[in-house]
Amino acid sequence: MTELQTLRATRESYDAIAHTYAQLFNDSLRDRPLERALLSAFAELVRADGDGEVADLGCGPGYVTAHLRGLGLNAFGVDASPVMVELAREANPGLRFEVGSMAALDIEDGTLGGVLSRWSVIHTPPQDVPVVLAEIARVLAPGGHLLIGFPATDGPHQETQAYDHAVTTAYRWCPDRLAALLREHGLAEAARTVIEPKPTDQRQFQEVQLLARKA
């Protein structure tokens, strides 16, 4: 399957479940204090380094974009799903949301103070992820910050692992491997968090957040 076909399949799958998704996850940060704290730290870093615009890539129905705005960031959302973007605009009429591909962002070079990629690369086939990272590096200003989240593989011996996702095929990443790819694109890891799954979680995957800075 080509990159274009993968994007189309992902977009159509999320279009189909967008309304249900928005209802299920509209307050998903409420029970995630560690992630809220990390988002707050990300916002503080962006504000300290020039307070540039922040793109929430794979923004879905926009609740995290709105959270970033509440943290004082000039945030806007980008998503491949037109239905998701429509729902985000309806729920947050004062914010900007755009339909777009992470692999070909309609954003000028070096203009963003920050990029959030919260689980938005999980449906990108591993061979195409470097294209997405190159786009993120392109649009970030020097000194700009990236916060990227993803599920981890079972160990360092497995760089990536595919898994069944409720919407479409998704991929887990070895944190060290993804951090190495970030370095190849001029994004130096500054910190990482690893959150262990709860015994009651359906999937027993570690959740990883990498914070990186463009040189």
Automatic annotation (TrEMBL):
Keywords: Methyltransferase, Transferase. CDD domains: AdoMet_MTases. The keyword Methyltransferase applies. SUPFAM superfamilies: S-adenosyl-L-methionine-dependent methyltransferases (SSF53335). GO terms for molecular function: methyltransferase activity. The keyword Transferase applies. Coiled coil: none annotated. Residues 56-148 form the Methyltransferase type domain. GO terms for biological process: methylation. This is Class I SAM-dependent methyltransferase. The lineage of its organism: Bacteria, Bacillati, Actinomycetota, Actinomycetes, Kitasatosporales.
